[in-house]
């Protein structure tokens, strides 16, 4: 959920072409506004998957792994615009993937 909320905030800032980002950044393809839309969409998917994980849905666990992996790749491509923020979100995504794969399938003993 944390990574999704951060992506929504940073994506909206990129769409608005905020001065928050590094000036004159060159991306692999397109521009800051396009990457803002991409990051916002991934953030919405991550937030939806997080809500599903809290509801203990199995589909949400694997969707969360896929979306976190997709976001990790997107953050590495977005690193020129916001170096420290992208690395922080990338690290969160790696921890999310580990947590969902290693501990996501365990049920509570009642």
Gyration radius, rounded: 15 Å
> How many distinct helices?
4
Structural class determined from secondary elements: mainly alpha
The termini sit apart by 26 Å
- Portion in strands: under 5%
Q: How does the overall form come out from the CA principal axes? A: elongated
Strand/helix succession:
HHHH
How would you characterize the largest beta sheet? none
Helix content: over 70%
Overall pLDDT level: 86
Q: Which residue ranges are poorly predicted, with pLDDT under 50 across at least 5 consecutive positions?
A: none
List the helices and strands and how they pair.
Blueprint: H1 2-15, H2 32-54, H3 58-77, H4 83-103
Helix pairs in contact: 1-2, 2-3, 3-4
Describe this protein's structure.
This protein is mainly alpha-helical and 110 residues long. It has one domain (2-14, 34-103). It is 71% helix and 0% strand. The chain is built from 4 helices and no strands. It has helices spanning 2-15, 32-54, 58-77, 83-103. Helix 1 (2-15) packs antiparallel against helix 2, helix 2 packs antiparallel against helix 3 (58-77) and helix 3 (58-77) runs antiparallel to helix 4 (83-103). The chain is elongated and about 50 Å long. The mean pLDDT is 86.
Using brief descriptors, characterize the structure shown.
single chain; 110 residues; mainly alpha; 71% helix; elongated
